[in-house]
Amino acid sequence: MAAALLALSATAGGPVLAQDSGAPAAAARAAQGSNMPQNGTATTLPSGPAGRLTYADVAGLVEAARIVAVVEVRRQAEVGRARAPGLAPGQTRLYLEADTQALLAAPVPVGEELSFLADMPLTEKGRAPKLRRQRFVIFADAVPGRAGQLQLVKPDAMIPADPAFEARLRNVIGQFSGGDVPPPVTGVRHVLYTPGNLAGESETQMFVETKTGLPASISVVRRPNMAPQWGVSWSEIIDQSATAPAPDTPGWLRLACGLPRELPNDAFLTPPGSDRQRARADYQVVLDALGPCTRTRS
Asked: Which of 178, 152, 8, 179 is nearest to 69 (CA)?
């Protein structure tokens, strides 16, 4: 076990983190049944229950990882602090060997036995937690050239597993497994406010910038005696029938977590004046409808 720990530690000289390959977890998927024994479910670990994770937390882990698996820890060994650079105070770095119980996502076959490094909070007595026979969901990549060795996408990307979290996680993985997932939003490029022919009638169009350059736009339409309606179009075509994304979906995530809190002044295609004020009011309608992008993980 000591030799394996040294080999895994040497891979990155610290916590083995995933590199940003630019490929989402949806690059390839493999799923197995979840009819494994459910004994040993972790519910009292200091890392906190999986139920506290927000949609943005879970989606971020899913997108970062190429391998998502449910494992049961078989053996553990504490890595000395001298060989654990970057280890946060109150944490310990563990070398873990685990048995694969279910494979939720992976680009290639994954063996029944896995090993990886993980950072975990110390117990109240300042000791490493005892994880043997505890079940976790891990978010990782394979270590090139080292069969069965993984690198977590974050030092603590190991979440206590329970049936409810696994079901929730499968749903999120399914959302990101298609080819129509919108790219991350990076800003608002242009804003155009157009008044209508009737009093109280108008439309604000906001052209959104994305990480991949894919065109996207948000439109807010107001009609007399009606609440403002808005929608997003993830294409070059401004779709008048576009609708707002449902909460806890990839489209909602992109907008809620990517849009700026205020429209930049250089984005407006109209001179300063009341039109800009109305456009800002329409933008606030969108932000209010989306709600905050809440994260509990960095």
From this structure: 152
